[in-house]
Amino acid sequence: MNVIAVVSATGGAGRTTVCGSLAVLLARRRHEVVALELDNQNVLSVYLGLDALPGRGLVQALLDGRSAWHAQTFRSAEGVLFVPHGALDGEQASACDARLATMPCWLRSVLADIDVQGDGVVMLDTARYPSALTMQAVRCADLVLYVSTPDPAAAVSLGAVLAPLRRCAAALHVVVNRVNPAHPMQADVLALLRVKVGEATLLPQRLHLDAAVPDAFARGAWVFDDAPSSQMSHDLHGLAKWLDEWLVARAGGN
Prior knowledge:
Elements: E1 2-7, H1 15-28, E2 33-38, H2 43-47, H3 58-64, E3 74-75, E4 81-83, H4 90-102, H5 106-112, E5 121-126, H6 132-140, E6 143-148, H7 152-168, E7 172-176, H8 184-197, H9 212-218, H10 223-226, H11 231-253
Parallel strand pairs: 1-5, 1-6, 2-4, 2-5, 6-7
Antiparallel strand pairs: 3-4
Helix pairs in contact: 1-11, 7-8
InterPro entries: Cellulose_synthase_operon_BcsQ, DNA_Partitioning_ATPase, P-loop_NTPase
Protein name: Cellulose synthase
């Protein structure tokens, strides 16, 4: 089993879009894929096919102290098995954080209960780093994909968390999302990221700003189906190909 956490320290970076897209594209490449939603916005579950935001999900098992999350499992049209985060009010969210503080290996125990074999993948859609559950995800993951936009604020945020992520993550790569080649400042930010992160960590597979993405989601479709000739469709297929090759290489090394 391969555990991949999609992480970002800034809001709006696109980590849920990246996580959901990769889950679907890997499933189409014949990998067994399970997606766990660790973000209380519950957007990934809607992307994967739920008609409404789920009331119960993974974190209710944490609060109840039982393995009730098995009953909250769904399968998307593409064959991705997924578990929603579940809805929390403010009091429940505080109780969840308090319990996670006393159970630093809770997510690891959940992952141990998932029967995914060989080159199968568990995708973790995380909340904004450094939430308690996201930090557990980073420690559990075989690969952390950090999603960053090419703007100065995002570059500063990445610089602030890069060292702790590298200490905790088994492997770390940075994916730059919403690249606009017509924006001169972005070229400077990308150059800064190459220096700050390093060529080996910064993936060459960039995801471009593309109006086809919100249009596709508005129609309840993935951009690679709704607009297969779009730039973003090409980019996501390229990122999925890189990840597929990473999985093959990792399987060969085991």
